[in-house]
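look at this record:
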Amino acid sequence: MHLPRTALSVTAAVVASTLGIAAYQCIPDERPGVNAGRASTVQDEAAAEPSVPAPATPRATVQSRPEFPTRLPGLGPKTSAQVPQHTRQVLLVTGAGKNSASSRVVLWQRVDGGWRPGAVWAAHNGYQGWTDEHYAGDLHSPIGVFGLTDAGGRLADPGSKLPYHRSGAFYTDDVGLQGESLRGVFDYVIAINYNRLPGTSPMDGTKPMGENRGGGIWIHVDHGGPTHACVSISKAHMRQLLRTLDPADHPVVVMGDAASLAR
């Protein structure tokens, strides 16, 4: 049977429309002429299949509270036992090695029964590294757990929660062990309670264990080189630390090389 010219035009239009729909609904086969013959079949099959509702968008999962370690990482049983039970802030100073003057500092805070770490800060310690038995002039930093109760400095109080003693006596124009300038190193200091009386100015020279056991060991502003026995961090980090350490949390410093702290 021969269709009129008008019918042929309508049929062509329908086929063209079908081809358009088929190309939109599926990924086309790039071989020449393949899709033209299967377009109407694809459309018919799609029409015959029951519609399937789009999958529901999954609801955002509720993030659980992060798990914090119940024991300070890197500390062995002997060192952990020296941290007071009521302490909720621990400044952990970990030396790179027993004879190294480089270390890293992390402030840990007790929350929800675990310990949450702060940022890691670069630091320096004693020129000769670390020792279990510090003596005056040995250029070692003492290993142990010591209270942090008193602060001070040449500059005005930046918002310290610890008692802060401002004095022009916190000054030196000496040079360090590698020839670097020491100006400004005592702009901010926090006394480490090694061989000193807690509750007094960092400038107090009382040494309960005797002069030969050294003293005046502080956390102070870094000068780019090793210290005589102190721990030094950047001025910005000193300000941050002074604003964070809280007497109500009974802060302590735990300091030493990694191997010694792991005992």
The first strand starts at residue 89 and ends at 95. The chain is about 20% helix and 20% strand. The helical segments are 5-25, 34-48, 77-80, 235-244, 258-261. Residues 1-50, 60-64 have pLDDT under 50 and may be disordered.
